[in-house]
Amino acid sequence: xxxxxxxxxxxxxxxxxxxxxxxxxxxxxxxxxxxxxxxxxxxxxxxxxxxxxxxxxxxxxxxxxxxxxxxxxxxxxxxxxxxxxxxxxxxxxxxxxxxxxxxxxxxxxxxxxxxxxxxxxxxxxxxxxxxxxxxxxxxxxxxxxxxxxxxxxxxxxxxxxxxxxxxxxxxxxxxxxxxxxxxxxxxxxxxxxxxxxxxxxxxxxxxxxxxxxxxxxxxxxxxxxxxxxxxxxxxxxxxxxxxxxxxxxxxxxxxxxxxxxxxxxxxxxxxxxxxxxxxxxxxxxxxxxxxxxxxxxxxxxxxxxxxxxxxxxxxxxxxxxxxxxxxxxxxxxxxxxxxxxxxxxxxxxxxxxxxxxxxxxxxxxxxxx
Length: 369
What we know:
By secondary structure, the protein is of the alpha/beta class. It contains twelve helices and 13 strands. 42% of the residues lie in helices and 18% in strands.
């Protein structure tokens, strides 16, 4: 019979801190199977069966990369080096990693470890103070070999990015497939949520939040408000256009080569996590802006994402807009978009499931390995 393998305090600390890695809509697409004192299997999954933003699994793979990087960071504070290998023979929907931790003399603790729990998403307005040269240099230096950062600074560049997010939000908020996702991932009347996004972290005022809660109870209400009452305008202004203008800059993380395989996105997720944690270390706030990349990729790969008339045409226009902003060649190498700036940390945020809820029993025959 399958059984749980006891953890020592070191492995428990590694997993307990690593679970704070970011994931789309706080889905936490990972479970841990402890195999021994320094051995764990990370069972990943994606949300392609029910999330229109994850139809190819790549956003979930980014999150798994962030998780692995977080595990490596915490391990370093215990003088351990992490070795992670993706298991062959598993479907792309279930990326599985065999992870070992090994003693390494003289290994220095990575200072980014201290910011794993503090890192969060700030969806509200930020300072428009330009990033200092030292801040940009530290952020660029945080990226591993094979990655670079492209900045969008100044009023005109911020406006172009804000407009791109504002236009993408129209696609998101008028698509039935996206409504199902939004309905399920928001926890209403909450400041914190262990498995979803609390409504107080969305970046809208209380009146708009109450109206959104009522409208989103049914697609019929959503469609009526969108068609006749400009229902998308208030949330798009508050969650996309104004925050897009009120920040220091927008940025794109670029890989040297366009990502193609699972491992490419996992590696990109590790780079993303280091960049984000460095921003937190610098006292900066950050918000991901992934939807332009997601839908541009769907268009490029001719992936069907909606049965609603007009959605494909809208996505094609947005893909062209994204390509014009980033540049044709860079748009295919972009693995992450976001906005950044000085500001106060978010007062409402997603938390995480407790570690005990993320543990799986050891596979048959491995409980005492």
